[in-house]
Amino acid sequence: MKRMGMIFRAKANKALDRAEDPRETLDYSYQKQLELLQKVRRGVADVATSRKRLELQLNQLQGQSTKLEDQGRKALALGREDLAREALSRRAALQQQVTDLETQHQTLQGEEEKLTLAAQRLQAKVDAFRTRKETIKATYTAAQAQTRIGEAFSGISEEMGDVGMAIQRAEDKTAQLQARAGAIDELLASGALDDQSGMATKDDIAAELDRISGGTDVELELQRMKAELAGGSPQQAIEGGKTDESQQSRTQHKFDKQ
User: In this structure, which CATH number among 1.20.50, 1.10.10, 2.30.230, 1.10.287 belongs to the domain 2-157?
Assistant: First the structure.
């Protein structure tokens, strides 16, 4: 169970790490610091308000003490020692309250100074964090953009590689087809490859006719040369050649029938 829990926490942590945006985290931390700074400032304001209230009370008590002192003087001047004693007694009670309020005032004043100094230090830290936050965010954004550009170029490079391979394959197939077509033409021209469409018979007949025609021309030329050597005319040699050719044709035809 521990192992399963560890695996689950590891996968959850990895998923959270992928989902986390450092810029959002920094902004959230900065917001929390601002909230804390605001609380400290409110504390300083509350202490200052309490201090001011004590000062008002002190001023009021001091005014009453001064008034009782004056009344005691006047009563004593009029021979009313009893009234003078009462005025001084009341003044003594007020003076004790003034002493207590002055002690509280000093305490609040000290707290106010501490909170003010803490607020100033916290303000400096928040300002420094804000500057660092913006720097980190700008750097992260630039790195993210650079990564996306690199990935885009990588994708383009892979795609161009595929295109280049496709072009090479097309060129290879084209060269292969051209070589095959040239070989077939050579085989057809040499007669080594028969034409199954019926054109082979026509080509054989044409070849036979060409052979007979060529043989006839040779015979005629031979007869002409014989006539010239015998002193006859070339026309007679040709006609004689034709007669001999007809005789040979009839003989061959008779032989074929037999």
Answer: 1.10.287
